[in-house]
Each structure stands twice: as structure tokens, then as C-alpha cells.
């Protein structure tokens, strides 16, 4: 998992307007009619999770990518990890991990971070070979990610390259949730004067605040699982009412 700066994360207007107040059912119905790629059309035809669905009943899938670099315009996906989940259970038997042959150069700097080497990707499938299965895992679920802009930007960049279409879906961003939950992240002028730093909201640091175990970072499946566990801890800590609708935390 990489972290992108704000200048890299400037979404197109059509995608930027979608968010917390979106009627995802209507959005999916509209896009199902216009989608050309069969697996994408099936994804939208499955329908979106209703925003009224209680947190405890919502079908979720945690998703993480490892990439060749930080810029979706010049870098590409090198591995995908995902795991189906609910707020009470992580379905490890349904987990999936792909090593992907990247469309761009596998840089030595990224190899040091995620440990995926040139020999690992030599015979790996290209993104389009796993796209249909990936969409099947995502359909009918709310995506969970830590710093969701990484996944959405890299996924759409790859899809546009291979099928000429992009995808939208409701997403829960555990990093944004952590910033929302803790007032300590609101850095004040007084804190600045005292030299106090704003607490980190990186995945590992967030997990430590909930006393979750340390996992080695930058394996897509491990990070997806770590994100799933973090969301469960966040909900257990901050939401006592199991009837809280999923729309209260998606974006």
C-alpha cells in the first residue's frame, strides 16, 4: 500500500461528484445500461447495497493493491488482495491474491517495498486476465480500503486501459473514518506551538491504537486483511447501535 499526495488525486468531475449522498441504486441502474464490457455490466446489474442496510448486515469486501509507484498515470498494479467480510466476520476462505504482470516498469524502489520481483511477474497474468474474477468478487458488496483513492484511481486507470471504461462503487475508507473518529487528529494552533505532531493515520498506526497485532506491510492480501480487522475494531469501538445504516460510514 502506497500513499498518494493531493496533486496526484485530482478526480475527474464525473467521479468526484459521487460520494456520501449518492443514490447508488439509481447510479448502478444507469451505468448498467451504458456499460459495454460484459463483466462490468454484470457488476452493475447485481445492484448496490442499500444505504439503509444495518452495519451488521452489510456485505463488504476489503481491497488492497501494490503498485509499481505512486502515480496512477505512469505506474500500474502489481498485486491485488481482497477478502470478503462483515462487521463480525472475515471470510478468509473467500480471500483472493493475484500477482499481476505490470504494464509499466517494475522499479527497484517499489521492489524493495513490496518484495515482488521481476521473476515473480515474468509468468504472471496481465490485469485483463483477472478483471472478470475481480469484478465478480466486488459485485454486490461495499468496498473497504485504507486510503481508498489509491484503489479507485489505480483500478480505473487499469480498466480504462484495457476495456475503455471505468467503475464506481460505494466505499468505506478506514483512514478517513479514523480521522473522523478521533478529535486528536484536528491539529490546533496551540498544538503546533507546543511542537505536538498530528497522530499518524497510516494503517499500522491506526491498528496499534485498537491493540491489533502488527502485520508485515506491503503484501496486498495481508494489508486487505489488516484493513478488514481495523474496520471491525472501529465499528465495535465507535458504534454501539447495530442498526446504524451502512450509509453512515460509506463515502
Automatic annotation (TrEMBL):
Function field: DNA polymerase III is a complex, multichain enzyme responsible for most of the replicative synthesis in bacteria. The epsilon subunit contain the editing function and is a proofreading 3'-5' exonuclease.
Residue span, Exonuclease domain: 59-240
Gene source species: Paraglaciecola chathamensis S18K6
E.C. no: 2.7.7.7
UniProt keyword annotation of Transferase present: yes
GO BP of this protein: DNA replication
One CC-aspect GO term: cytosol
Keywords in alphabetical order: Exonuclease, Hydrolase, Nuclease, Nucleotidyltransferase, Transferase
Pfam (any one): RNase_T
Superkingdom to which the source organism belongs: Bacteria
Reaction it catalyzes: DNA(n) + a 2'-deoxyribonucleoside 5'-triphosphate = DNA(n+1) + diphosphate
Subunit record text: DNA polymerase III contains a core (composed of alpha, epsilon and theta chains) that associates with a tau subunit. This core dimerizes to form the POLIII' complex. PolIII' associates with the gamma complex (composed of gamma, delta, delta', psi and chi chains) and with the beta chain to form the complete DNA polymerase III complex.
The protein, known as: DNA-directed DNA polymerase
Transmembrane parts of this sequence: none
GO MF term list: 3'-5' exonuclease activity; DNA binding; DNA-directed DNA polymerase activity
Cited PANTHER family: DNA POLYMERASE III SUBUNIT EPSILON, PROTEIN NEN2
